[in-house]
């Protein structure tokens, strides 16, 4: 199932204008969210805190399963080093008091001093703050040191590609010079270490996505959107139509959408396809195989998942071969294999529309 470097239509060098527009996924792709899955410290589900997210250990464990990419978040420290970390602030405890500091305001050595150390010394405890304001100590079953982007290129198995999310603070206004400096530091590491590993850039920040597309043509850029599930001051972030507009005007290659937005507005998939853009999804609903298969039927090209083992193995056990049906009209006919049992399935557009009405309610989103 895993996407081989040689089979993917990704490039890693100077391209002409014609080549850069020929991006596509060669098949339905599966990506590990922050590696082997994000950490939800408040969750009673132990699977959500089994391995430290965004770590070399998490990436390599995920790479042992039939997935194509690991997705992770990159920020740049004060002294110009791209590091892999999701949260904007680092929380720790000093003399019984919780303190916080921006990741981007730390020098590299300070950032790396948090959490477990390779030599077991100088450990600064890590905490995480949830959206509702609760604070939890960052405890997982298998911990691992924090890492840089360069570490990932050097130490992560080459069997997986990287979906590099360019992480910025929603509550900060960034000028072009600041964005260009940050993206330049990231591109420097990518250009020095990527070799022929498949790379995708993605970002919720419209200007960052547009700028990194302007700064390089070697790797595809996807715009991340909630598709209207949440509302932001920047209207470009609030709908599928705005996301499509950004991609078309800026030469971006695709959209990464919250899966809820896709299920609520299934006709958006066709609008994305008509715009010659790729579409992949993220979100907690992607931890249900039924929702992922529904998206496949709808024409979504890939999914970012937390339950890497369960989802990747479930999908790998299903072999799907599309067959042209000259006698049928607009339905999608497939040969689907569940183990040795083979079943012909034809799904019409009306049936897809019917299913999407019930999927959100059925899964209690």
Automatic annotation (TrEMBL):
Its EC number is 3.1.4.46. It comes from the Eukaryota. Signal peptide: none annotated. The keyword Hydrolase applies. Residues 28-315 form the GP-PDE domain. GO terms for biological process: glycerol metabolic process; glycerophospholipid catabolic process. Keywords: Glycerol metabolism, Hydrolase. PANTHER family: GLYCEROPHOSPHODIESTER PHOSPHODIESTERASE (PTHR22958:SF37), GLYCEROPHOSPHORYL DIESTER PHOSPHODIESTERASE (PTHR22958). This is glycerophosphodiester phosphodiesterase.
């Amino acid at each position: 199932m895993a996407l081989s470097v040689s089979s993917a239509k990704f490039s890693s060098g100077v391209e002409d204008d014609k080549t850069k527009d020929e991006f596509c996924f060669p098949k339905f792709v599966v990506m590990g969210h922050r590696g082997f899955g994000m950490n939800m410290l408040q969750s009673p589900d132990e699977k959500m805190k089994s391995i430290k997210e965004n770590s070399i250990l998490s990436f390599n464990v995920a790479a042992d399963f039939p997935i194509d990419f690991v997705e992770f978040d990159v920020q740049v420290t004060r002294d110009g080093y791209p590091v892999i970390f999701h949260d904007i602030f680092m929380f720790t405890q000093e003399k019984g008091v919780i303190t916080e500091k921006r990741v981007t305001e730390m020098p590299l050595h300070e950032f790396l001093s948090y959490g477990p150390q390779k030599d077991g010394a100088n450990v600064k405890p890590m905490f995480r703050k949830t959206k509702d304001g609760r604070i939890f100590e960052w405890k997982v079953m298998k911990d691992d040191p924090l890492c840089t982007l360069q570490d990932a290129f050097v130490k992560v198995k080459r069997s997986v590609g990287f979906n590099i999310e360019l992480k910025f603070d929603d509550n900060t206004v960034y000028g072009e010079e600041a964005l260009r400096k940050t993206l330049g530091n990231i591109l420097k590491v990518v250009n020095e270490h990527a070799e022929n590993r498949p790379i995708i850039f993605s970002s919720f920040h419209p200007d960052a996505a547009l700028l990194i597309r302007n700064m390089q043509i070697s790797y595809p850029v996807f715009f991340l959107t909630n598709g209207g599930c949440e509302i932001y001051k920047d209207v470009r972030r609030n709908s599928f139509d705005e996301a499509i507009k950004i991609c078309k005007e800026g030469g971006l290659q695709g959209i990464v959408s919250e899966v809820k937005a896709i299920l609520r507005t299934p006709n958006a998939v066709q609008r994305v396809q008509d715009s010659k853009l790729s579409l992949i999804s993220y979100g907690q609903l992607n931890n249900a195989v039924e929702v992922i298969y529904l998206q496949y039927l709808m024409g979504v090209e890939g999914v970012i998942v937390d339950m890497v083992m369960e989802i990747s193995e479930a999908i790998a056990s299903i072999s799907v071969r599309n067959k042209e049906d000259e006698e049928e009209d607009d339905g999608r006919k497939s040969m689907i294999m569940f183990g040795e049992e083979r079943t012909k399935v034809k799904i019409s557009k009306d049936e897809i529309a019917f299913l999407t009405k019930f999927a959100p309610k059925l899964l209690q989103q």
